[in-house]
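User: Can you write out an input/output pair for a complex, sequences first and structure second?

Assistant: Here is one pair. Inputs:
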Amino acid sequence: MNPTDKHIRVTLIGAGNVGTQLGYNLKQSGCDIRQVWSAHLANAERLAERLGATATDRTEDLADGSDVYLYAVKDDALQDMAKTVSPTGGIHIHTAGAVSMDIFKGKKERYGVLYPMQTFSKGRRISFADVPIFIEASSAETETYIRTLAKSLSHTVTSCSSEERKVLHLAAVFCCNFPNVLYDIAHSLLRETSIPFETMFPLMSETIEKLRLMTPREAQTGPAVRGDEQAMARHLSLLEGNDNWQDIYRTLSQTIASLHAEGEQIKK
Amino acid sequence: MNPTDKHIRVTLIGAGNVGTQLGYNLKQSGCDIRQVWSAHLANAERLAERLGATATDRTEDLADGSDVYLYAVKDDALQDMAKTVSPTGGIHIHTAGAVSMDIFKGKKERYGVLYPMQTFSKGRRISFADVPIFIEASSAETETYIRTLAKSLSHTVTSCSSEERKVLHLAAVFCCNFPNVLYDIAHSLLRETSIPFETMFPLMSETIEKLRLMTPREAQTGPAVRGDEQAMARHLSLLEGNDNWQDIYRTLSQTIASLHAEGEQIKK
């Protein structure tokens, strides 16, 4: 088994957003996807057809002989899958940010993690080239193998322990899932106006681009960091009738104010 | 006074982040910046020198004869400035998202708003070409003038009432200031690891890019929308010791869950 072989044989366990995108990108990088498993046979079949693989919804049908068994199932299901997937040969790799590598311990011989830190949705195809991939492995030799596989997908491959990966995954929630729900609220607010949501894109992009030059602390703008109580009171009154959004507005504004008050004290 | 003249004469009131960036861009588009006012003379002088203007920190020294008096001061100060700026000729334009045009009513004859919706920080020069600008004016004729001025700065110029602009400004807080404080928390979390904050950029960018194809509701990913209680419990335990961050985590996760529960009900 040599990771520089053109045709690493892969069994793909999971055909959701992550599994689908991984499947496409692995195939493109020259892997031979042999089998696709999903709890829903139709999903497995749809993806398997595109990848030139066979499909199954029965873990007992998963065949021996793959170089890599790649698990892209829900976090909650991983522990069980590590047990029920019967082949023990090959390298067993899960793709979850928040789950320890140890779920494979005592169940498989060689195993590891390949966590592509990105947000995957149906209907949007992701090129893995720029997606940071974090890897971990049960041995140095296995890590070398997983690294080569990851490098065939992405420019950015980093070793990361399960402990660090947990913090990374939490940071990803704060950089993706939580900003997105704030965009969702903005989207709802703008529906009451004639202004399309697309208008916000330059602002949203610049908010990120600034961070290439300065820290988020330095980049903070808006009423809360200026201590502009009048503007904040006006905003809260616009949010009247939605306690949840008012709560978010207050909590985040207070956080901004207190983080910057700390900064002021440090300066003094 | 013809807005297509190459040299619109501008008095710039305010030399902070917005005033500075506006000054640069107006000069570049061919305006003649005559005078710069700031409460801090050194700030006025620094900017005036770059713009080929004179500097003052005394409102009584502001000269008559400009085509445009452009106010880029703090929201709280605008009402007073509209009164104390003595020239009444020319068009008086403020640049604030959250302040009504009516602060000029009864004080100036021709007035309006030119709100560039962007986040401005020292040390980062902004090209206005892609910045959406929202305008409003005291008369149709004045609006035509302000529109021409705004179009010399940006491709995207939209008329917007004071009422709509308030909602827009609130949406901007949800699209910029609030995501930024979440990035700040992620930045702090990652400092405890060996992973640099820059690693998050592809994820942050993709979170926005997805919204060109789907709504934020459709784009939502992460433990809260999956209802992955275990992952959320692990995240909350990682945040132990910081009640504020735990509070933010809980509030935003619950918001995601409830917005998507509504969606499920609508589907049924």
